[in-house]
Design goal:
Blueprint (H helix, E strand, L loop, with lengths): L4 H29 L15 E5 L3 H12 L3 E5 L7 H6 L4 E4 L1 H7 L2 E4 L6 H7 L1 H4 L3 E4 L5 H4 L1 H9 L1 H8 L4 E4 L6 H6 L9 E6 L2 H13 L3 E6 L20 H7 L3
Parallel strand pairs: 1-2, 1-4, 2-3, 4-5, 5-6, 7-8
Antiparallel strand pairs: 6-7
Length: about 250
């Protein structure tokens, strides 16, 4: 039994309609349940979105290194208009903003401010920073930061900073190197300078290690946040320019 030309055309049309309906249904399902989520660390080759809160000597040096590595940045300070020249010099992937705008923008947020300002910042940006990877470079100095610095040193900065920023994925990073070395020793010839890291979140540590390498240094994971005390102010490794191997030996790793 043969099918007439008209019947054939009707069958093809019906198939086309059915395929269109199926595709539309699939698209609706994807919209409802969402595509599989990707973590920040899953695509190591893709540029990261980084917010920098406190673009002083440490934050500014890292902004230069990370912009050169191809990352997208919002650099901020209390006076973002003063950062316009720096942003322009770093290219089209860098713009200025307020600390809140930097916190909203970044999948990773660098906090590089005087330690005494940390508790207030944590309160002000609690919602914006919730769940994000936060790299903390701050060091407590009693002469500048008051009594809270003494308490932070007693607890260890990893433990203390985590109390100021509840709900974030905190990593202590870039606190044990001075600004001059951070700017001038990047990607040096020979063995790279080691940068100690401490954090309780495995993915956050993975991202921090990538950003240390992108800045031109070698990451050394010391342990959880409680181990950050091992490279706090006053420790034998603080601000010493040690290779990764030397740093591991000094820390007994």
């Amino acid at each position: 039994m043969t099918m007439s030309r008209g019947a054939s055309h009707v069958t093809v049309a019906r198939r086309s309609v059915l395929i269109t309906i199926a595709l539309a249904t699939f698209a609706c399902v994807v919209m409802l349940i969402g595509a599989p989520s990707r973590t920040v660390a899953e695509s190591d080759a893709s540029p990261l979105k980084i917010g920098i809160i406190g673009t002083g000597r440490i934050g500014g040096a890292l902004a230069k290194h990370w912009a050169k590595a191809g990352h997208e940045l919002v650099i901020s300070s209390r006076h973002p208009e003063e950062l316009q020249d720096l942003a322009r010099s770093l290219g089209p992937k860098v713009r200025t903003g307020t600390p809140r705008e930097a916190a909203v923008f970044g999948d990773v947020v660098l906090v590089s401010i005087p330690y005494g300002a940390m508790p207030q910042l944590g309160r002000d940006l609690k919602a914006e920073l919730a769940g994000k990877i936060v790299l903390d470079t701050g060091n407590p100095y009693p002469g500048r930061d008051g009594d809270m610095a003494e308490e932070a040193r007693r607890k260890g900065t990893g433990v203390a900073s985590a109390e100021f920023f509840p709900g974030v994925r905190l990593v202590r990073a870039f606190n044990a190197i001075n600004a001059g070395a951070l700017a001038g020793e990047s990607h040096r010839k020979g063995e790279l300078i080691g940068i100690p890291l401490a954090g309780d979140d495995a993915e956050a540590l993975k991202v921090a290690q990538r950003l240390v390498r992108d800045a031109g240094f070698e990451p050394v994971v010391v342990g959880g946040l409680s181990r950050a005390k091992d490279f706090d102010v006053g420790t034998p490794v603080y601000t010493r320019l040690l290779t990764a191997a030397e740093l591991r030996k000094a820390l007994g790793l």
